[in-house]
Design goal:
The protein is an alpha/beta fold. The chain folds into two domains: 80 residues, Arc Repressor Mutant, subunit A (Orthogonal Bundle), CATH 1.10.10; 171 residues, Rossmann fold (3-Layer(aba) Sandwich), CATH 3.40.50.150. The chain has 15 helices and twelve strands. Strands 6-5-4-7-8-12-11 form a seven-stranded mixed beta sheet, sandwiched between helices. Helix 7 packs across helix 10. The protein is globular and about 65 Å long. The model has no long low-confidence stretch (mean pLDDT 96). Bound molecules: S-adenosylmethionine. The site of S-adenosylmethionine has 18 residues, from loops.
Amino acid sequence: MTDLWDALRGGLLTRALGLAADHDVARALADGPRSVDELAAQSGADPGTLYRILRALASDGIFEEVEPRVFANTETSALLTEDGWDDFAHLFGSSWLGAITALDASGEASFPRVHGDEFWSWLKAHPEERAAFDRAMAQGWQRRLERVEGVGWRGDETVVDVGGGNGSFLLHFLELHPEMRGIVFDLPETVRDESEFGDRCVFVEGSFFESVPRGDVHVLGTIIHDWDDESALRILRTIRASAGERLVLIEAVIQPGNEPQGAKWLDLLMLVISAGRERSEEQWRELLADSGWEPVLFRENGVIEARPC
Ligand SMILES: C[S@@+](CC[C@H](N)C(=O)[O-])C[C@H]1O[C@@H](n2cnc3c(N)ncnc32)[C@H](O)[C@@H]1O
Protein backbone atom coordinates (compact mmCIF):
# COMPACT_ATOMS: atom_id res chain seq x y z
CA MET A 1 0.00 0.00 0.00
CA THR A 2 2.79 2.40 0.95
CA ASP A 3 4.65 1.51 -2.24
CA LEU A 4 1.62 2.30 -4.38
CA TRP A 5 1.19 5.69 -2.68
CA ASP A 6 4.89 6.48 -3.19
CA ALA A 7 4.55 5.61 -6.87
CA LEU A 8 1.39 7.66 -7.32
CA ARG A 9 2.92 10.86 -5.99
CA GLY A 10 6.04 10.51 -8.17
CA GLY A 11 5.14 13.54 -10.31
CA LEU A 12 5.12 15.74 -7.21
CA LEU A 13 8.62 14.55 -6.30
CA THR A 14 9.87 15.33 -9.81
CA ARG A 15 8.37 18.83 -9.70
CA ALA A 16 9.62 19.52 -6.15
CA LEU A 17 13.15 18.51 -7.19
CA GLY A 18 12.92 20.75 -10.25
CA LEU A 19 11.85 23.69 -8.06
CA ALA A 20 14.67 23.04 -5.56
CA ALA A 21 17.11 23.09 -8.50
CA ASP A 22 15.59 26.21 -10.05
CA HIS A 23 15.81 28.01 -6.68
CA ASP A 24 19.42 26.82 -6.29
CA VAL A 25 18.75 25.46 -2.80
CA ALA A 26 21.52 22.83 -2.77
CA ARG A 27 24.22 25.34 -3.73
CA ALA A 28 22.95 27.77 -1.09
CA LEU A 29 23.47 24.97 1.47
CA ALA A 30 26.95 24.03 0.23
CA ASP A 31 28.65 25.74 3.21
CA GLY A 32 26.28 24.40 5.83
CA PRO A 33 22.67 24.51 7.10
CA ARG A 34 20.51 27.58 6.55
CA SER A 35 17.04 28.65 7.54
CA VAL A 36 14.27 28.39 5.02
CA ASP A 37 13.62 32.13 5.45
CA GLU A 38 17.17 32.93 4.27
CA LEU A 39 16.87 30.45 1.39
CA ALA A 40 13.56 31.96 0.33
CA ALA A 41 14.83 35.54 0.56
CA GLN A 42 17.84 34.66 -1.57
CA SER A 43 15.86 32.90 -4.29
CA GLY A 44 12.68 34.96 -4.31
CA ALA A 45 10.43 32.13 -3.10
CA ASP A 46 7.54 32.29 -0.67
CA PRO A 47 9.08 31.01 2.62
CA GLY A 48 6.03 28.95 3.63
CA THR A 49 5.85 27.25 0.25
CA LEU A 50 9.59 26.61 0.05
CA TYR A 51 9.38 25.08 3.53
CA ARG A 52 6.66 22.65 2.42
CA ILE A 53 8.67 21.68 -0.68
CA LEU A 54 11.85 21.04 1.32
CA ARG A 55 9.99 19.20 4.09
CA ALA A 56 8.48 16.83 1.52
CA LEU A 57 11.86 16.27 -0.17
CA ALA A 58 13.52 15.72 3.24
CA SER A 59 10.98 12.99 3.95
CA ASP A 60 12.54 11.16 0.98
CA GLY A 61 16.15 11.80 2.08
CA ILE A 62 16.71 14.70 -0.31
CA PHE A 63 17.75 17.57 2.05
CA GLU A 64 17.43 17.21 5.83
CA GLU A 65 15.64 19.42 8.34
CA VAL A 66 18.35 19.60 11.01
CA GLU A 67 16.47 22.06 13.28
CA PRO A 68 12.95 23.40 12.91
CA ARG A 69 12.87 25.26 9.52
CA VAL A 70 16.64 24.86 9.04
CA PHE A 71 17.84 22.62 6.22
CA ALA A 72 21.13 20.94 5.26
CA ASN A 73 22.24 18.95 2.25
CA THR A 74 22.25 15.16 2.26
CA GLU A 75 24.49 13.06 0.02
CA THR A 76 21.69 12.99 -2.56
CA SER A 77 20.76 16.68 -2.50
CA ALA A 78 24.46 17.64 -2.62
CA LEU A 79 24.55 16.18 -6.14
CA LEU A 80 22.41 19.15 -7.17
CA THR A 81 25.41 21.41 -6.54
CA GLU A 82 27.10 19.84 -9.56
CA ASP A 83 26.54 21.08 -13.09
CA GLY A 84 24.52 18.47 -14.88
CA TRP A 85 22.45 17.03 -12.03
CA ASP A 86 20.78 20.39 -11.36
CA ASP A 87 20.14 20.67 -15.11
CA PHE A 88 18.57 17.21 -15.15
CA ALA A 89 16.34 18.21 -12.23
CA HIS A 90 15.37 21.38 -14.08
CA LEU A 91 14.55 19.57 -17.35
CA PHE A 92 12.65 16.76 -15.62
CA GLY A 93 10.74 19.17 -13.42
CA SER A 94 9.67 21.51 -16.21
CA SER A 95 9.47 20.75 -19.96
CA TRP A 96 9.78 16.96 -19.62
CA LEU A 97 7.25 16.69 -16.81
CA GLY A 98 4.82 18.79 -18.84
CA ALA A 99 5.16 16.33 -21.69
CA ILE A 100 5.05 13.29 -19.39
CA THR A 101 1.63 14.32 -18.11
CA ALA A 102 0.37 14.27 -21.71
CA LEU A 103 1.72 10.80 -22.55
CA ASP A 104 -0.97 8.53 -23.93
CA ALA A 105 -0.97 5.01 -25.36
CA SER A 106 -0.94 6.07 -29.04
CA GLY A 107 2.81 5.55 -29.51
CA GLU A 108 3.22 9.24 -30.42
CA ALA A 109 5.70 11.49 -28.64
CA SER A 110 3.80 13.91 -26.40
CA PHE A 111 6.55 16.57 -26.23
CA PRO A 112 5.73 18.17 -29.63
CA ARG A 113 2.00 18.21 -28.77
CA VAL A 114 2.61 20.03 -25.49
CA HIS A 115 5.45 22.34 -26.52
CA GLY A 116 4.49 22.94 -30.15
CA ASP A 117 7.74 21.67 -31.64
CA GLU A 118 9.94 18.59 -31.98
CA PHE A 119 12.34 18.28 -29.04
CA TRP A 120 15.54 19.12 -30.97
CA SER A 121 14.01 22.14 -32.75
CA TRP A 122 12.52 23.30 -29.44
CA LEU A 123 15.99 23.16 -27.84
CA LYS A 124 17.37 25.17 -30.77
CA ALA A 125 14.71 27.83 -30.20
CA HIS A 126 15.47 27.90 -26.44
CA PRO A 127 19.25 28.32 -26.10
CA GLU A 128 19.19 28.26 -22.27
CA GLU A 129 17.39 24.91 -22.31
CA ARG A 130 19.84 23.67 -24.95
CA ALA A 131 22.75 24.66 -22.67
CA ALA A 132 21.07 22.92 -19.72
CA PHE A 133 20.56 19.80 -21.84
CA ASP A 134 24.22 19.75 -22.96
CA ARG A 135 25.42 20.14 -19.37
CA ALA A 136 23.05 17.37 -18.23
CA MET A 137 24.38 15.01 -20.91
CA ALA A 138 28.01 15.93 -20.20
CA GLN A 139 27.55 15.01 -16.55
CA GLY A 140 27.67 11.28 -17.46
CA TRP A 141 31.07 11.32 -19.26
CA GLN A 142 32.88 9.39 -16.54
CA ARG A 143 30.39 6.51 -16.51
CA ARG A 144 30.51 6.33 -20.31
CA LEU A 145 34.31 6.24 -20.19
CA GLU A 146 34.19 3.30 -17.75
CA ARG A 147 31.69 1.51 -19.93
CA VAL A 148 33.92 1.58 -23.04
CA GLU A 149 37.01 0.47 -21.09
CA GLY A 150 36.55 -3.13 -22.31
CA VAL A 151 36.49 -2.12 -25.99
CA GLY A 152 39.68 -3.11 -27.80
CA TRP A 153 41.22 0.06 -29.30
CA ARG A 154 44.15 -0.16 -31.72
CA GLY A 155 45.45 3.07 -30.25
CA ASP A 156 45.91 5.21 -33.36
CA GLU A 157 42.32 5.51 -34.59
CA THR A 158 40.28 8.57 -35.40
CA VAL A 159 37.11 8.32 -33.33
CA VAL A 160 33.97 10.11 -34.47
CA ASP A 161 31.60 10.79 -31.57
CA VAL A 162 28.33 10.99 -33.48
CA GLY A 163 25.90 13.22 -31.57
CA GLY A 164 28.78 13.91 -29.19
CA GLY A 165 27.14 16.97 -27.61
CA ASN A 166 29.64 19.41 -26.12
CA GLY A 167 32.51 16.92 -26.53
CA SER A 168 32.95 16.10 -22.84
CA PHE A 169 33.13 12.32 -23.41
CA LEU A 170 35.52 12.40 -26.36
CA LEU A 171 37.87 14.97 -24.81
CA HIS A 172 38.28 12.84 -21.67
CA PHE A 173 38.59 9.70 -23.80
CA LEU A 174 41.43 11.27 -25.82
CA GLU A 175 43.29 12.13 -22.62
CA LEU A 176 43.51 8.38 -21.98
CA HIS A 177 44.57 7.63 -25.58
CA PRO A 178 47.36 10.07 -26.52
CA GLU A 179 47.85 8.71 -30.06
CA MET A 180 44.20 8.88 -31.06
CA ARG A 181 42.34 11.75 -32.73
CA GLY A 182 38.72 12.74 -32.41
CA ILE A 183 35.83 14.40 -34.18
CA VAL A 184 32.78 15.54 -32.25
CA PHE A 185 29.85 15.61 -34.66
CA ASP A 186 26.58 17.26 -33.64
CA LEU A 187 24.05 19.94 -34.50
CA PRO A 188 25.45 23.49 -34.80
CA GLU A 189 23.43 24.81 -31.85
CA THR A 190 25.14 22.47 -29.34
CA VAL A 191 26.58 24.65 -26.56
CA ARG A 192 30.30 23.94 -26.35
CA ASP A 193 33.67 25.55 -25.70
CA GLU A 194 35.88 24.70 -28.68
CA SER A 195 38.87 26.38 -27.04
CA GLU A 196 39.02 23.23 -24.86
CA PHE A 197 39.31 20.92 -27.86
CA GLY A 198 43.12 21.07 -28.28
CA ASP A 199 44.89 19.98 -31.45
CA ARG A 200 43.70 16.35 -31.58
CA CYS A 201 39.97 17.04 -31.62
CA VAL A 202 37.63 19.10 -33.80
CA PHE A 203 33.93 19.85 -33.80
CA VAL A 204 32.10 19.22 -37.07
CA GLU A 205 28.51 20.40 -37.32
CA GLY A 206 25.87 18.65 -39.37
CA SER A 207 23.01 16.18 -39.27
CA PHE A 208 23.41 12.42 -39.06
CA PHE A 209 20.44 12.07 -41.38
CA GLU A 210 22.60 13.50 -44.17
CA SER A 211 26.21 12.45 -43.64
CA VAL A 212 28.78 11.94 -40.91
CA PRO A 213 32.55 12.58 -41.00
CA ARG A 214 34.79 9.67 -41.97
CA GLY A 215 36.74 7.94 -39.22
CA ASP A 216 38.01 4.55 -38.03
CA VAL A 217 35.43 4.14 -35.27
CA HIS A 218 32.01 5.77 -34.96
CA VAL A 219 30.84 5.98 -31.35
CA LEU A 220 27.18 6.70 -30.62
CA GLY A 221 26.42 7.40 -26.96
CA THR A 222 22.67 7.21 -26.24
CA ILE A 223 21.79 8.39 -29.73
CA ILE A 224 19.77 5.59 -31.27
CA HIS A 225 17.43 5.34 -28.25
CA ASP A 226 16.22 8.87 -29.11
CA TRP A 227 14.63 7.61 -32.31
CA ASP A 228 11.95 5.29 -33.64
CA ASP A 229 13.06 2.36 -35.80
CA GLU A 230 12.66 4.17 -39.11
CA SER A 231 14.86 7.11 -38.08
CA ALA A 232 17.32 4.81 -36.28
CA LEU A 233 17.78 2.84 -39.52
CA ARG A 234 18.41 6.07 -41.44
CA ILE A 235 21.14 7.12 -38.99
CA LEU A 236 22.86 3.73 -39.00
CA ARG A 237 22.69 3.55 -42.81
CA THR A 238 24.17 7.06 -43.11
CA ILE A 239 27.14 5.99 -41.03
CA ARG A 240 27.52 2.79 -43.04
CA ALA A 241 27.45 4.83 -46.27
CA SER A 242 30.05 7.26 -44.89
CA ALA A 243 32.57 4.42 -44.96
CA GLY A 244 32.04 3.59 -41.31
CA GLU A 245 34.34 0.68 -40.42
CA ARG A 246 33.41 0.02 -36.86
CA LEU A 247 30.52 1.02 -34.66
CA VAL A 248 30.49 1.31 -30.88
CA LEU A 249 27.06 1.95 -29.40
CA ILE A 250 26.79 3.02 -25.77
CA GLU A 251 23.17 2.26 -25.10
CA ALA A 252 21.08 -0.11 -22.98
CA VAL A 253 19.95 -3.63 -23.69
CA ILE A 254 16.55 -4.23 -22.16
CA GLN A 255 16.46 -7.45 -20.15
CA PRO A 256 13.40 -9.70 -20.18
CA GLY A 257 11.30 -10.25 -17.07
CA ASN A 258 10.52 -8.13 -14.07
CA GLU A 259 14.00 -7.24 -12.86
CA PRO A 260 14.44 -3.54 -12.07
CA GLN A 261 16.36 -1.78 -14.84
CA GLY A 262 16.63 2.00 -15.25
CA ALA A 263 16.30 1.62 -19.01
CA LYS A 264 12.75 0.31 -18.64
CA TRP A 265 11.77 3.78 -17.36
CA LEU A 266 14.14 5.66 -19.65
CA ASP A 267 12.28 3.91 -22.47
CA LEU A 268 9.11 5.81 -21.52
CA LEU A 269 10.99 9.11 -21.34
CA MET A 270 12.28 8.49 -24.87
CA LEU A 271 8.71 7.79 -26.00
CA VAL A 272 7.53 11.05 -24.40
CA ILE A 273 10.29 13.20 -25.84
CA SER A 274 10.81 11.90 -29.36
CA ALA A 275 8.99 8.59 -29.92
CA GLY A 276 12.33 6.89 -29.25
CA ARG A 277 12.74 3.60 -27.42
CA GLU A 278 15.10 1.33 -25.54
CA ARG A 279 15.68 -2.03 -27.23
CA SER A 280 16.17 -5.70 -26.35
CA GLU A 281 19.11 -7.64 -27.77
CA GLU A 282 16.81 -9.12 -30.41
CA GLN A 283 15.61 -5.65 -31.46
CA TRP A 284 19.19 -4.37 -31.63
CA ARG A 285 20.25 -7.32 -33.79
CA GLU A 286 17.38 -6.70 -36.20
CA LEU A 287 18.07 -2.96 -36.43
CA LEU A 288 21.79 -3.49 -37.07
CA ALA A 289 21.24 -6.23 -39.66
CA ASP A 290 18.70 -4.06 -41.51
CA SER A 291 21.16 -1.17 -41.70
CA GLY A 292 24.19 -3.14 -42.93
CA TRP A 293 25.91 -3.83 -39.62
CA GLU A 294 26.82 -7.11 -37.95
CA PRO A 295 27.01 -7.04 -34.17
CA VAL A 296 30.23 -8.60 -32.92
CA LEU A 297 29.77 -8.05 -29.22
CA PHE A 298 26.95 -7.32 -26.80
CA ARG A 299 28.29 -6.32 -23.43
CA GLU A 300 26.14 -6.57 -20.32
CA ASN A 301 26.73 -2.87 -19.69
CA GLY A 302 24.92 -1.95 -22.93
CA VAL A 303 28.03 -1.42 -25.08
CA ILE A 304 27.43 -2.95 -28.51
CA GLU A 305 30.18 -3.31 -31.10
CA ALA A 306 29.42 -3.88 -34.79
CA ARG A 307 31.19 -4.11 -38.13
CA PRO A 308 29.86 -3.71 -41.67
CA CYS A 309 28.29 -6.89 -43.03
C1 LIG B 1 20.92 12.07 -25.87
S1 LIG B 1 22.08 13.22 -26.51
C2 LIG B 1 23.56 12.28 -26.36
C3 LIG B 1 24.77 13.14 -26.23
C4 LIG B 1 26.07 12.37 -25.99
N1 LIG B 1 26.35 11.43 -27.05
C5 LIG B 1 26.02 11.67 -24.67
O1 LIG B 1 26.14 10.45 -24.63
O2 LIG B 1 25.89 12.36 -23.66
C6 LIG B 1 21.73 13.15 -28.25
C7 LIG B 1 22.59 14.07 -29.10
O3 LIG B 1 22.20 13.90 -30.48
C8 LIG B 1 22.28 15.16 -31.11
N2 LIG B 1 21.45 15.19 -32.32
C9 LIG B 1 20.10 15.22 -32.42
N3 LIG B 1 19.72 15.24 -33.72
C10 LIG B 1 20.87 15.25 -34.44
C11 LIG B 1 21.14 15.25 -35.85
N4 LIG B 1 20.14 15.26 -36.75
N5 LIG B 1 22.43 15.21 -36.25
C12 LIG B 1 23.44 15.20 -35.35
N6 LIG B 1 23.26 15.18 -34.00
C13 LIG B 1 21.97 15.20 -33.56
C14 LIG B 1 21.78 16.11 -30.05
O4 LIG B 1 22.14 17.44 -30.34
C15 LIG B 1 22.43 15.54 -28.78
O5 LIG B 1 23.67 16.14 -28.53
